[in-house]
Amino acid sequence: MNARRTDLTPARLPRGFADRGAAELAATREMTEAIRRTYELWGFEAIETPFFEYTDALGKFLPDQDRPNAGVFSLKDDDEQWLSLRYDLTAPLARFVAENFQRLPKPYRSYRFGPVFRNEKPGPGRFRQFLQFDADIVGAPSVSADAEMCMMMADALEAVGIRRGDYVVKVNNRKILDGVMEAIGLGGPENAGRRLIVLRAIDKLDRLGPEGVRALLGEGRKDESGDFTKGAGLDADAAVRVLDILKAKAADNLQTARRLFDEFPKPGAGQEGARELSAVATLIDQAGYGDRVELDPSVVRGLEYYTGPVFEAELTFKIEDEHGRPIQFGSVGGGGRYDGLVGRFMADDVPATGFSIGVSRLQAALRALKGADAAAALGPVVVLALDREHIGRSMAQAATLRAAGIAAEVYLGASGMKAQMKYADRRHSPCVVIQGSDEREKGEVTLKDLIEGAKAAAAISDRSEWTESRPAQVTVPEERLVEEVRAILSRHV
């Protein structure tokens, strides 16, 4: 008897990371292919940037420490240069555009897909590695590019199966909120902390309503559990000024834009933002997207990063959790104008706008829409190996199926027929190919439709009836293998 090994390495997944199985990968591939087709219909081209960038190119270096900050995964190369795994797909794009500026067409329309990495504390639904799918236009200063982004985002959601009416693309402008901050005396770097509290309060409008936001703009708010959140400390007049902006949302986009103009009668950031939103609203309505894209002054997205219009794709349908409580997925992507990012590498700023889709979150929403019992993707046809001496013939049958474009594999284990059938079930195989000695001598194969067989078996209670009927099973000449397998597959696609 062999001694049991004691030097085993524990099999454990790092926190904040996830393995992904065949079904999830297939769903991701199907969804991202639909998004890719949409982007290319709008004239965007694919690029791929590496996982690693120089840390200073990502803008994530702390000058008071001899290492990158904790938000990114970093290492030093053999030249003592700090490298970091990308934390989004936009910063690498900015580097790529600056490095290739002279040869790229302007405006430059591109899309990118892949994993990004965050060195942050993981939690429920919060991973250190996740997928993003981005699209950007670099070199277009007009808000017509921002309008196109919003419209393309709507098309992408419908392309993956989100019905019109189950989502909305919301648009705001950083300059609107800058104007509000200036009006209530929170301009300048010295008020950055209080501005952030105000913006976080605005971002909770959908969840807490106007009164909840009013409390967070003032002294603070106690929630249902008794926890207290400190507020921004605004006086009553300043809080009303902020809430008035949020109330500017009207029944249609042009009316919302007019109300925003009324809120900013004097020249400044707010009035400029209202003018840009008015232009976006006009373009959206003229292009026929007014029922899918709407102006909403409550949209807040990383505002220190953006310089103009900002937008967010929000799912509006509700489902119930396992306890019957209604839940809503909310945002599955967003973006905005970031005219200063490419300019970090160049003498002058370069206008740019774009958005990012959170692939995992959107995929979870699609699973919820289709239901938990959505059919799993079909696996390959499995050719059983009942006689190891003749496995070469089984391999030839699988090769014949593959040559016809049908996914097929030969069972390569050492188990008997019962275990081989169980294996085929676990592979979600639509059917198996069986050739015992009798079939081989006659030049025949037996095909068993596993999907129809399972349905028939559920209705059969008597063993003799099962033996006589052999549900969903047919024996055919071997030369008709491809034809008969295709007939089975056609019933399940």
From TrEMBL:
Record-listed L-histidine binding positions: 88-90, 118, 132, 136, 301, 305-306
The protein, known as: Histidine--tRNA ligase
One Gene Ontology term of the molecular function aspect: ATP binding
This protein's GO CC annotations: cytoplasm
Gene (UniProt): hisS
Organism: Hansschlegelia beijingensis
Keyword Protein biosynthesis: yes
SUBUNIT field: Homodimer.
Leading EC class: ligase
EC number: 6.1.1.21
Gene Ontology biological process terms in this record: histidyl-tRNA aminoacylation
PROSITE patterns cross-referenced by the UniProt entry: AA_TRNA_LIGASE_II
Annotated family: Belongs to the class-II aminoacyl-tRNA synthetase family.
Domain of life: Bacteria
Keyword Phosphoprotein: no
Main location group: cytoplasm
Known catalytic reactions: tRNA(His) + L-histidine + ATP = L-histidyl-tRNA(His) + AMP + diphosphate + H(+)
